[in-house]
Give the backbone structure.
Amino acid sequence: MADYSIHVLEYSFVPNYHKSGVLYGAHNQGYVKLPYCYVLIRSEDHVALVDVGYNDKDYGKHLGDKFGVENWRSPKVVLAEFGLTPEDVDTVFITHAHFDHFGNVEDFPNATFYIQRDEIEKWVWAMSLPDRLRWMMIAVDPGDILRGVNLAAEGRLRVVEGSQENVLPGIDLHLARDSHTFGSMWVTVRNDGKSDSEDTWVLAGDLVYQFANLKNDGSVVGVDTMYTPVGLAVGSQMNLLLATEEMMKQVGYDDTRVIPIHEEGLADTFPCRITGENLRISEICLADGAKSAVS
Amino acid sequence: MTSAPAPGNGGIHDAQCGIWDIPDASQVDVILDGGYRDEAVASYLAHASPLYNVLSRVLAQLSGVLLLAMTRGHRDLSLDHAIYTTAVEQLAEARDRLRALKSPPAAVRHHAALQELAACLADAAKTMDSLSALVGQHARDDARHDIIRKLHVAQRLLIATAEPDANITPVDFSHACCTCGASHAGGAAKNT
């Protein structure tokens, strides 16, 4: 029994992103394509997203154009592939406050948003620090925090403290404190609804960019494979690895069940198709009775 | 442009108000007449850049403090005063330095808009400080609404005064997955 269909939806991409940003220590190893995606989780009762991408309407477009983000498409266009509109989305889980994950809340007028309190509190604290510590403030748009205020004023923001089970039936939230960001969160879907699930998927946010973070060459330390953290940690690489271990433990160490969203190689593991907008849809799993969106 | 007079009620003109004649976000680059090749403009921007950064961060801090207060308890709007106080102190210092900043004719509008942005933030901060003392849900809701409106005006002004090529930008995109490939696209050098 599977309650949810899960799809990774590409909404834009960077054609040439330095590999060392994706994989810690991969210096001078060139560039990789970096898809920008959010995740659609859909059941008979709910339409949920993990992250919402960034806003291309105002300053986001200016910067996107400047820095080489290509082929940005709105949630309206991306979700239309499923016969959905942004208004249909009732729940959004924000894995962290970077602009490409948290920057487009305005497009989802009916959704309730979940984010970790640590993520907000420590960003705000970091903003108060002197310029010499500015590295800790990267990639957060003050406008996004203000949009969070709007959500709170409308009663559509839920601030999570640590782990929270069954936010939606069978869906749990988990905190990876001081890792990629101050309060990064991953989303666990127990797709059979059981507390001791045999059908678990982990949606990793940016705690894992690509499968290589789960299964990198370990020959340098004499093992076949080893976890290797992503290239950016405002917290620590140690905390990234410990979060990775926890995520992997939840899926019984099946590394195809921890889903990275900046991974072009999803196509090698899951059924997928390229839309008319030249964006990829990857089908992670289907709910009982649901039709494939990629075949 | 000279600094616009405040509206009759003592508040601050909305960012979209015609009195400012500030271009919308899609035209942010034209707020400065001429370009960065003008030595006086370049000098002005070099001095304005750190002040802009402070204002951007103060906006984030005030927004964040308000957000945390609003999500802490259903009627508790008390502020985190350590962060609030830091933000207010940083803002006061930035306002002083902005007032002292000399702007060439081509940058007068930009300078005025930055000062308006700072004034708007100060006004929002002042109202925030009064939140916990307000009696009655209606009064608190009105004050909260007023703060949010002012913060939005500040945000519009922040976007309107951005000059990314002069390192005046509300977001540092120079690292990690959120860089949008900045280093490879040639944009990072001006933002690091």
